[in-house]
Amino acid sequence: MAETAASPTSADKNLAARVSPAKQLAEAFAAGSLAGTVELSEVPFLTMVGLRADAGSETATRLAAVTGGLPAGSGSVATKGDASVLWLGPSEFLVVAPTEAHESLGGDLIPALREALGGDSGQVVDLSANRTTFELTGPRARAVLEKGCSLDLHPRVFKAGTAFSTEIANIPAILWKTGEESFRIFPRASFAEFLGRWLLDAMREYASPEVP
Amino acid sequence: MLLIPCPNCGPRDETEFHYGGQAHVPYPENPNELTDTEWSRYLFYRENPKGIFAERWVHSTGCRQWFNMLRDTVSYDIKAVYKMGTPRPDSSSRATPETGTASTGPDSTTTGSAAPSTSTTSILSTTAPEGATK
Ligand SMILES: [Zn+2]
Predict the structure, then answer these.
(1) Cβ within 8 Å, pair A88-B63
(2) Out of A204, B58, B78, B98, which residue is the most buried by the measure of CB atoms under 10 Å away?
(3) Polar residues bias located where (chain B) (predicted)?
C-alpha cells in the first residue's frame, strides 16, 4: 500500500481512497482473533488476473512462460516468486500476486500476460476488484473451516500448496491452503462481509477465554 | 445429499452443482422448417423415465464445466459420468432393469464414488475426442 507522500500525487490520493470489501470488519477481526489459536485478517487489494486458455495450446504455453507455469489439474497451484496461479477449471486459471504487481502501480504482470495472449482466443482479465482475500491461520483454522466446508480438510488429504474452488458457509469461494496451519480464502467482494462475520462466529468458541 | 463425482474435481456435494435436464437432445438441423408442434416438442418435451436417465450437470461452484451423468431416478445411484459430446455409455451391465419394482430402490443410497469414477475412466478412454461439442 502506498503511503501518502509529502505532496501526494493523484495516484496516491486514489489509492488512499480505496476501501477494501471487509474494511469495516478490521476491528472485529482483530478482536475475534487469538494468537496461537486462530487468527483472521483481510489482505486487501491483491492483484488477481483471470486467465482463459485451452490446456496444451500455444496460447497456454505463452501465458505459462509469463507466470512460470500453469497448474495441471484440480487443486494444483503453480508458484513463481511472489505470484501464484490457481487452477479453477480445465481452461481457467486465477493469478494471485501482491498489490504492487498491479499495472496501476507500475507492475508489468498484467501487460505481459496481455501481450502473451495477443490476438488469440482466450482471456486475460484484471479481476483484482472481484474478490478480497481472507487469511485464516492457527492450529484451529482447520476446525473453523470444517464447520462450513465439506471438502476433506484433513492434512493427509488437503496438502499445503493446493487450492480448490468450492463452497464455504454455503457461498462460493476459493480455498487455498498456503501452509500447514494457514489458509487464504477468496470470497467475492459482495460476500466478504457475510463470510467475515460467519468466520468470526465460527472462531468464537476457540478464541474466547476458557470458562472455568 | 448426493455426492457427485465431477470428472474434473472428484466427488463434491450436490449443492456445488446445477442440473441441466435431459442429455443428448439434439438441436434441430433446420429449425425454420419445423412446425410449431415439432418445435414445442424440441423445446419442452423431455423423457421422465423410472430408472436410468442420462442428464446434464454443471459444477457451478467448482470447475464450472458441464458434463453428462447416468443416474437412476429411483435409487439416485450414479452409474457413470462422462464428457459432453460423448455418446451415452452402455449402462446395461450395471443398470437395474427399468421395469424393476421400486421397492428395492429407495433403500440403496448413494455413497462414495468409486464405481462412477472407475467407469468414467474407461468411458473417457474409449470415446470421442474433446473436440466434439455439446
Ligand atoms: Zn468440477
Answers:
(1) yes
(2) B78
(3) 89-107
